[in-house]
UniProtKB/TrEMBL annotation:
One of its GO terms (molecular function) is peptidase activity. It comes from the Bacteria. This is ATP-dependent Clp protease adaptor protein ClpS. GO terms for biological process: protein catabolic process; proteolysis. Keywords: Hydrolase, Protease. The keyword Transmembrane does not apply. The keyword Protease applies. Residues 22-83 form the Adaptor protein ClpS core domain. Pfam families: ClpS.
Amino acid sequence: MSTQEKVLEELDISELISGQSEIILYNDDVNTFDHVIDTLIEVCDHTNEQAEQCAMLVHYTGKCTVKTGEYEKLKPMCSKLLDRGLSAEIM
C-alpha cells in the first residue's frame, strides 16, 4: 500500500467516526449571484446574509462549504443544488 493510499484510508475512517460531511459549492461562470443566493436559501435553509456571504466566498475563493452534517441528510440537498445548475459535491 502506498503512502497516499494510507492517508486516504485514514481520512475515510475519521469521516466515518465523526459522521460529519460537507457540501462544497464551487464557482462557475454561468449562475448569477441572485440565483445562487436564492438557491442556498431554499435548499440549504440559509438566511439571506448567510447565502450572500457564501456566494461572495465562492466567487472570490472558488469554493465554500455551504452545509455540514450527516451524509444521508446532505445527499438530497446536494442533489437539489445540482438540479438547479450549481456545481457542488459532498466531501
